[in-house]
Amino acid sequence: MKSYSVLALGLAAALGFLATSACAQTSSDTFPPVANVKQLMLDLIHPSSNEILLSIYRGGPKDEKDWAAVRRSAVTLAESGNMLMMRGRARDQGDWMKDAKLLVDAGNAAYKAAQAKDNIALAALAPSFDASCTTCHKQYRPNVFPKDGGSK
Ligand code: HEC
Fold first, then answer.
1. Of all residues in the chain, what percent are helix, strand and coil, respectively (each to 5)?
2. What per-residue confidence (pLDDT) applies to 149?
3. What average pLDDT does range 7-23 have in this prediction?
4. How confident is the model at residue 4, as a pLDDT?
5. Which residues, including other chains, have CB under 8 Å from residue 78's CB and lie 6 or more apart?
6. What average pLDDT does the segment 17-26 reach?
7. 122 C-alpha to center of ligand 1: Å?
């Protein structure tokens, strides 16, 4: 009896796993992207990186509200990097993915600095923010680059 229920549990787990992987396969079709790459740049990525860089240039976050704003922008940037890697947005599986990962890493590092309220660590990240934009723009936005330097 006991071993029977263990078997049943195992079976249920296996079925659950199958159902999950089936869902994972169709999720990107079931939940189609709302914004294209340009819209992500304009409405999520550019404003978020601006907010963080401005905060750094003004001497860093001063109070809880400032730190919360930096955390919000940092997590937005990190997750935007992931969104750039989604099917339908990724231009290829090579450099594009590496460049988008730079954005994930920069956002992630800023998020951690903001959680720790570490102004020095945050300020030290400014160059990686610039680099995360320009690296990708140099290759995938050649018609515009270097008009805005990629840092805006
Ligand atoms: C993985 C690649 C990639 C990364 C990383 C990236 N961009 Fe972009 N960005 C693009 C591409 C491609 C375009 C052109 C989109 C189009 O016109 O369809 C673009 C366009 C833009 C535009 C212009 C949108 C318009 O008006 O046409 C801005 C502003 C921008 N990016 C800001 C940023 C900033 C700021 C960062 C870094 C914090 C960044 N991007 C990181 C690929 C990237």
1. 75, 0, 25
2. 45
3. 50
4. 56
5. 103, 104, 105, 106, 107, 108, 110, 111
6. 47
7. 22
Whether residues 19 and 68 share a domain: the answer is no
| Domain range for 49 | 35-140
- What's the gap between Cα 2 and its chain centre? 47
For residue 94, the 8-state DSSP code is S
Ligand 1: residues whose CB is within 6 Å? 37-38, 41-42, 45-46, 49, 84, 96, 99-100, 103, 129, 132-133, 136-137, 140-141
24 & 86 share domain: no
- The number of distinct structural domains making up the chain is 2
The residue whose CA has the least distance to atom 27 of ligand 1 is 38
Residue 152 lies in a domain: no
Residue 12 has pLDDT above 80, yes or no: no
What interhelical angle do 46-57 and 64-84 show, nearest 10?
140
pTM assigned to the model: 0.81
Q: What is the structure's pLDDT at 1?
A: 46
